[in-house]
Amino acid sequence: MAQQHPDVRHPGAPYADARPFDPGAPYADARPLDAGAPAPAPVLTAYLRAQGAEFLRALAAWAGGGPAQGGEADAAPVLRGTARRIGATLHTFHGAFDPAWSTGLRRELAWFSGTLAQERLHAATLRRLQAALQEPQGDLGTARAAALLERRLTLARGRAHSAVLEALGSARFHALADAVALLGGDVPLRGGAAVEPRDLASATEQQLADAVTALPAEPETGPCPVPPGDGDAAWHQVRSLLRLHRYALEALGLPVPSRLTAAARTLDRHRDAAEAASVAADAARTPRIAPATAYALGNLHAHQRHEALAARRAFHRTWQSVPRSRNTVTVP
After folding, report:
1. What's this model's pTM, rounded to 2 decimal places?
2. H or E stretch including 131?
3. How would DSSP label each residue in 173-229?
4. Are 325 and 29 in contact, with CB atoms under 8 Å apart?
5. Can you tell me whether residue 175 is helix, strand or coil?
6. For the segment 87-124, what is each residue's pLDDT rounded down to a tens digit?
7. Model confidence pLDDT, tens digit, residues 181-217
8. Sequence-ordered strand ranges (E) for the chain
């Protein structure tokens, strides 16, 4: 199978390769954060408590519902999302929290959300590839290619699900759940001089803008070679940074602009297409498969790389309409 996608880890890891940013025009339709808004530290702690409570409710639903009642299917996305939001908040606003506490909790949330994400990724990849193989292919190996992919991805998903169940039963997870439950009490804040959370959020926003500026331009029209998988890492980095930025806005009680949400969806499409292309390429290297099957898998790989290219072009178009700010988080 393809190696674990870098995106499935929690997006809290720092990125040290951001380039200087040319800010361009400031927000044309934005207003500064209201000076009379609630103090940022209570806003952040309230957000963490709300996410922690949602995490615990989803965990109870998972335990109470079980597979037959759909408890796992309903609870897993909530567990994954709340774990990422808590971890992202601890990362972006690191200067506001006790460093030893926040670093340890963020590491454990990254482990758990990454474990959950593997099963979802395998299932989504299988659905994408099956849908693509239903399109006209014009070769006899399509059915065998579909069967091969289903066997490989079903096996991988089963292993990922077993890993989730093992994690949920571990002492490590019980300690994590206890730590999340404690968010309902006092959140450990950093001592000393106060740190302005909006400055920390603005730093993440600029990191995102830096990373987008560093992306290669994709031609809008005309023939274009299938983009190599080696270029995906920079796009996955932008996706992770965009998620950090969106969660930072949420944590500060600010609305997330619809244009940011649209940009995030195009990067989700890119991630899914890139992963599917990688899986098809790996399957094509299976020993002793029929030439027709390998040919069908090769076509599938090319199809998914073109889907990734289309998502890149769509992101560039969407991003042109996303307002950009400098030094302060603003409300679109």
Report:
1. 0.81
2. helix 99-133
3. HHHHHHHHHGGGSPPPBPPSS---HHHHHHHHHHHHHHHHHHSPP--SSS--PPPPG
4. no
5. helix
6. 999 999 998 999 999 999 999 999 999 999 999 999 99
7. 999 888 888 876 567 888 999 999 999 999 999 998 7
8. 31-32, 330-331
